[in-house]
Each structure stands twice: as C-alpha cells, then as structure tokens.
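Obj: model holo form, ligand = NAP.
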Amino acid sequence: MQALAGKVVIITGASEGIGRALAHAMAPLGCKLVLTARDRQRLDSLAEELANITLCPPLVFAADVTSVQECQQLIDASVAHFGAIDILVNNAGMTMWSRFDELQDLSILDRVMAVNYFAPAYLSHCALPHLKASQGQIVVVASVAGLVGVPTRSGYSASKHAVIGFFDSLRIELNDDNVAVTIICPDFVVSQIHKRALDGHGKPLGQTPMQESKIITAEQCAQMMLPAIAKRERMLITSMRGRVGRFIRLIAPKFIDNLAKKAIASGH
Ligand SMILES: NC(=O)c1ccc[n+]([C@@H]2O[C@H](COP(=O)([O-])OP(=O)(O)OC[C@H]3O[C@@H](n4cnc5c(N)ncnc54)[C@H](OP(=O)(O)O)[C@@H]3O)[C@@H](O)[C@H]2O)c1
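Output (holo structure tokens):
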C-alpha cells in the first residue's frame, strides 16, 4: 500500500457510500485527497472526520460531474491546490429500480447515463493532461451489472456496460503514456444508492429493498479496492459469484440470467 503514499487522489461521490469509505481508507495511507460531490455539507463533515487521521487536509470541492464546465473547474482547482493529479477515482453514480415496461418517465434513462457514463468520460478528459504528466491512474467504479444483464436495472446495467467498454478502450489508448485504468465491479454494497434509486416515475425509492445484513459494507468494499488500486490492476470484481459468473455465462447464460433474477428478488 506504500505505492499510494503521497498520491494526489480525486474521489467523486465522496459524500456518501463507497466514495466516503474510500476516503477514510486512503487518508491514513498519506494520500492527498480531493473530495467531491454535490452536497457541500456532507463533504465538509467528511473532511472534519478525516482531520484526525491525516496530516494533509483534503481539498473539498462541490461539483456536479454531469457538467463539463464543473468537471474542468474541479480539475483546475485540484491542480492549483496540490500541483498534480495522480489518481482520478470516478465513483459517483446513481441507479434505478423499475421494470422497463413499468417506466413512466423515460428521462430516467438519460439521468442514469449522464452520471454513470458521461460524467466519468468528461472528467477523465479534463484530467488527462495531468494524468499523462504524472503517469497516473484512472479508477472507475462500475458494477457487476456492467458485466451481465440485471432485471429492473436495464438503464443502470446499460450505463455500466457503457462505462466498462469506454474505459477498456481508453486503457489501450493510454498504454504508451503509462496511465493505468482500473475498473472496479462491486456486487451489492450497503450505501445510499438503493434508497436513492429512481422508481418508474423518477422518484427516489426512499427505503432500501436490499437485505443489508447479507451484503458487504462500503468499508469492506473500500478495503478490497485499495490493493487493486495500489497494484494498478485492470479489474476487480468484489464477489465470487461475479468472478465465476463471467465464465459460466459463456456456456450457461440462462443460469446466470436466473441468478441475477434471484439476486434482485431476494435483495442480496
Ligand atoms: N452500492 C452498491 O450496491 C453498488 C454496487 C455496484 C456498483 N456501485 C457503484 O458504486 C458507486 C458509488 O455508489 P454508492 O453505492 O456509494 O452510492 P451512494 O451512497 O448513493 O453515493 C453516490 C455518490 O455519488 C454522488 N453523486 C451522485 N450524482 C452526482 C452528480 N451528478 N455529481 C456529483 N456527484 C454525484 C453522491 O453525492 P451527492 O448526492 O452529494 O452529489 C454520492 O456521494 C456508483 O458508481 C455505483 O453505481 C454501487
């Protein structure tokens, strides 16, 4: 984990869930953190929590990463403050929870795609000159839903397939610049995302449909991410069913379809 000491790390979606847990995990390693999300108060409270465990106070920068302009402002502020960018963690995301034939508001598909696919592409483009200069790393928090189809998450699954395809392509382009691309595919994690998931009318569910005692915590997910980031690995899939399922799907796709259906029905 020494590889991460002193690195300037931008974490999007740092106000909640996996991003917040990752900030807690990286701060004691000596990372210089830029914490970003839209909710300034939640970011400030995180910065206060981190004050006791890091020697380097984080930069807090509130931004909506679906705006190219705000992405550029975030990158400019990070470089002005820390002088470089070593690791960009594209973690901010949102989801939906509705069968496609029950969607009343089709703009849900646009909203999910904007945060989960376009935002990481925009922000990475803004950060690229600095990442090339530092021979740095892009980390993308995708999902196992980016590797297989998932019912009630069609738009989410599409956005995660898109982001994986995008960053698998970008990895090849950046190979000669020695900029690494690490794709993280979490299985279910306890966080705010399930309560915030949009129903068929585009409104947040308000309560989680997950069985939270049966899925990993955001802290566990962050601890799994650290070595994958430090070793600049291509991809991390957090669950055994996610890792094995990719291969089983090649020979028995219907079995994996049923597994995905059961996972959604049972909430774990
Ligand atoms: N939890 C899971 O089961 C799970 C599984 C697989 C993959 N993932 C992925 O993990 C990532 C993190 O999700 P999470 O579970 O930690 O969710 P979460 O607790 O809901 O956190 C999502 C974060 O994204 C930020 N965000 C959302 N829209 C944004 C926008 N337009 N601009 C800037 N920030 C925005 C939120 O902050 P503000 O509201 O303050 O902006 C929040 O900090 C996502 O990409 C998600 O798809 C999660």
